[in-house]
Amino acid sequence: MTGFFIKKAFFDGWDNLISLVLLNLGYLVVLLAIYGAIELFALSVAAGLTLLVLAVALHSFYTGIVSVHVKEYAWYKRPSFADFTAGCKQIWRHALLHFGISLILLSLMILIIPFYLSYGSLIPFSIAMILFWITLALYLAMMFYYPLASQMPGDKPIKTLKKAFIIFIDNIGFSLFFGVYHIVTLMFTIFFATIIPGMSGIQLSRQVAVKLLLMKYDYLENEQQTTKKHIPWDSLLFDEQEKIGKRTLKGMIFPWKD
């Protein structure tokens, strides 16, 4: 499943490359807001903090809308601009919770954990380590939050968050791999000046991951005698394999050689 996830995430991104680039341009506004907040801190802490909170809110809401939009790419569809605007109505409640959790994560990483580490003694250091692992678990679970919100739109935000934690805990190995995958993707994003694959590409990969994981749970629900270690991924992914086809990186760049 992991190998096919990498393949599908890559080719889904390639097939929708121009759209992803356009979506990534929206994140430049978020980056500008963050940069402005950093500059404002030198003049006014209150003004800088206010702009930073607004930047986090903008990131949460825009990412939610992008997530709903790129979900269609994982289903081999081509959504329109009208679908993009409709995503705002679908996701705004989940975006509010995402915004709150993002503020908690930022506070833990920027303020609280460094505060305890600054003491340099055993007990504060232990508290900092506990908070670090809590922060990491929360971040890894949040990778599945928006995809679940868009693929299961009937769920309320808290229910979606619970399911995100269930998927994270139930697939701890894949979640850790997925975290590393995000780091690698982010490195490519920085190298290509946030244009590709960018945050929209990351959101697409999350949609692909959740789509495949939900296929597993649908199968287990119908075949209750089957254990998680004996899932027939070849048959489960047969239709997906057929839709992607026998494509290679060389064939994309030099199609005449295939």
Give your account of this protein's structure:
Helix 4 crosses helix 10, helix 5 (81-117) packs antiparallel against helix 6 (122-142) and helix 6 (122-142) crosses helix 8. The chain has one domain (2-246). The protein has helices spanning 2-15, 17-25, 27-41, 45-74, 81-117, 122-142, 145-151, 157-170, 172-191, 198-222, 233-236, 238-244, 249-253. The mean pLDDT is 91. The radius of gyration is 20 Å and the shape is globular. The protein starts with a helix and ends in a 5-residue tail after the last helix. With 258 residues, the protein is mainly alpha-helical.
Oligomeric assembly: single chain
Order of helices and strands: HHHHHHHHHHHHH
Mean pLDDT: 91
Number of structural domains: 1
